[in-house]
Amino acid sequence: MNIAFLAHDKKKELMVQFCTAYKSVLGKHTLFATATTGRLITDNTGLPITLLLSHKQGGHQQINARIAYNEIDLVLLFTDPNAVDPWEDNQMMDTIRHCDKHNVPIATNLASAEMLIMGLQRGDLDWREVYHNKPKY
To answer: pTM to 2 decimals?
Structure first.
């Protein structure tokens, strides 16, 4: 499975802690992240991550393109609900829309991320492998 990580600045440490806790599960998959988030995860966990551009340089668009081309199977996007308006960030909303449109599971908080990772570990997301082979029209 291909997993993408994105996090608001105030949620990057939580993302690192999450990846540390689930390192054994995540290590079996191909990981992608925007630059700063990915570097923090790699530096703290040793997990190999393909680093994309930073948020401001277009990292979200790179992830969205991979979602559209069925190259991402799961997105963990930790948002900061205490931001003035976390949904004002159109790039975050675009990522959520892309996941919805292309049937990609997404978690925007720790609780839903844990549910998805536990499901991934159990094999509940194996249907994504079939989805990869779906013909494109």
So the answer is: 0.90
